[in-house]
Amino acid sequence: MSQYNEGTERTKLMKLPFAAIAFGTAALVGAQAAPASARPKAGPVEILQSSALKPGMTGVAWTVFTGSEPEPVPVEIIGLWKNAWGPKQDIILAKMGGKATRTNVAGGMSGSPVYVEGKLIGAVALRLSVFSPDAICGITPIELMLEINELDASRPANARVPGEAPRQAAMAVPGDLLARAVAAGASPELLRTPPLLTPIETPLVFAGFHEHVLREFGPLFRQMGVHAVQGGAAGALYTSQPAPDWQSALQPGEPIAGVLVSGDMSVTGLGTVTYNDGKRVLGFGHPFFNLGPVDMPMAKGEVLMVLASQFSPFKVANATEIVGALRQDRHSGILGELGVESAMIPVEVKVRSLADTAAVRGEKSFRFNVFVQQKWTPYLMMITLFNSISGLNEFMDEATYRLSGQVELDGPGNLSLNTMLASSEVPMPAPMLLAGWWGDKFNRLFLNSVKTPRLKRVNVTVDLIPERRVAGIESAWLSESDVRPGDTVKVKVFLRPYRGERIERDCEIPIPESMPPGAHRILLSDADTLNRLPAVAGMSNRYIDLPETVSLLNQERSNSRLYISLVRMAPTAYYDDKTMPSLPASALNMMQTGRASNRAMFLAGESITEQASLPFDYVVSGSYSLKVNVR
Question: 554, 441 in Cβ contact below 8 A?
């Protein structure tokens, strides 16, 4: 395996497409076939096209069984399986020997480079059957992996993201033909039988996560076809800057990891390096999540052991130092760039346990960074918050969680988030509901169809109150029901808490000078009553911009306050992030005439004007109306 010694010549070659570098190596620099026993190194290498392979040829695969040093594994070529990976996408079938006969083709071996006659033929990427006693693997030809760089910014349609199951190509079978097959004894599940040839599972390793957290979120990972395992990390990484030794990192056969979360807790996907030209790296031989163009931190790894199993063997490993960024996640592998930094979202979570006196009796702080991607970021925010809450020894059923958070954005201003959630009789525990509420705010930020948000940092504090703090609005009364514009009305409201004495509060409500004569209502309500219509209007607009999304989120009322509003019989229009009460008919007609059909506007027959709000250290629910006559 030859190396480029001339800096000038190397610079010229690095400007060529990735495929041109590898295929042109032998002719340009006279690369020689490396001995089968020599550990592969970064730099140009001669390749052997899959069409030149013959059954019975022998070679060697390089992968790590323990530590970070790859070991040779004997490989015997079985043959070329035509179109097995797709149209004009052949797969090389081979049988692995050596240690692989005990471990079988294990998760984490994805990307292990295979050499025949000292020439690179591809990467171990697939396996046949889960119970086969033979370590039969499918090798993705290197020529397919070299196509990754040419795909540029196109986005695959079948990306594996939270909320979506991996799609499989459906085979059209006439109904009568299927009926005859079932009548003849075939299983009704005929078309849902998993394929014989499947990508080796990439273990998604969760370090710093509690076992029950993975159990709660496990079904979603299984739906995506992701093998989530509890593991560890070599150390907390609070930055995505490349380590000083990045230039010598990720040699062929060494572990490579994509980093979704790093810091006091981490989420990483482990595979193996197939090829390294000194700056760019190929690995896996199959997709990570098939996201297309990505910007994800790329790290080194160390293998503790390979868990041997006929059903689900996998490498038990840690991600170590970050050395670059993944740029492509494609059908035939991943492509990364060494020495570059990937943008992540710094998150700080403070979890405090409060005594009955409201004094802080315990506190934990967590720092970590989150991968930026439209579908993955909200989900990662949700699971990390749930994991942070679960770390308290005071984690209990009868409790209330009070959250206050600040999301700093680049451009449209900051986002302030506040809520309280308490234990209830619903089957979903309060910490899960709180984490879901938190994740949904990021989901709404990233789902705006105009601009991708850039989050500078996120800070959130969660207080654990050791009792169920919920209170329903029970009743209310007015000091007088006949008033004049400009008067001030005294209101008394009663709330009924969970297992406690009735709560009584007083406030004064000014009657606006512009209030028309007649019968009106004073509405005492929770936050959900006032948030409902503005939220529906905003989410119904497919072209809502990021500043409008932030404005809508900031306008949401807190569920730990009771709101007092005046209600009059006049139409209100809800449009994007704007609420326009008491609109004249002429203005309303003009807005409806000039409105685009894809920008929804909601109308309500009443106008609700918030006049005051009362803070409570409870989750307030319900509503109550009082009649008032303006003379």
Answer: no
Whether residue 440 is predicted with pLDDT greater than 60 in this model: the reply is: yes
582 pLDDT more than 80? no
Token digits of residue 272: 């193996």
- For β-strands 333-338 and 280-283, DSSP reports them as antiparallel
* Residue 20 pLDDT: 40
What was the pLDDT predicted at 97? Answer: 93
Tell me, yes or no, if the pTM score tops 0.70: yes
Q: Where are the domains of the chain?
A: 7-147, 197-338, 345-465, 470-630
CA proximity to 350, closest of 338, 334, 367, 335: 367
**Of residues 402, 386, 393, the one with CA closest to residue 464:** 402
Please give the CATH number for the structural domain made up of 345-465: 3.10.20
What are the C-alpha distances in Å from 402 to residues 133, 267, 558?
54, 27, 11
What are residue 564's DSSP bridge partners?
Answer: 524, 612
Same fold for the pair 7-147 and 345-465: no
| Beta-carbon-side half-sphere exposure of residue 479 (alpha carbons within 13 Å) | 11
How far is Cα 30 from Cα 3, in angstroms, rounded to an integer? 10
Query: How would DSSP label each residue in 514-534?
Result: TPPSEEEEEEEE-HHHHHHHH
Q: What local confidence, expressed as pLDDT, does residue 22 receive?
A: 45
Residue 387's φ and ψ, nearest 5 degrees, are: -65, -40
Residue 401 to residue 469: CA distance in whole angstroms: 9
Q: For the chain, give me the number of helices (H) and strands (E)? A: 12, 32
Tens of pLDDT, residue by residue over 194-228, are 446 778 878 888 988 988 888 888 777 777 767 78
How many CA atoms does the CB half-sphere of 164 hold within 13 Å?
13
Q: For 7-147, CATH number?
A: 2.40.10.10
Please indicate whether residue 367 or residue 593 has the higher confidence score (pLDDT).
367
Q: How far apart are CA 115 and CA 112, in angstroms?
A: 10
Q: What's the CATH number of domain 197-338, 3.40.50, 2.60.120, 2.40.10, 3.40.1130?
A: 2.40.10
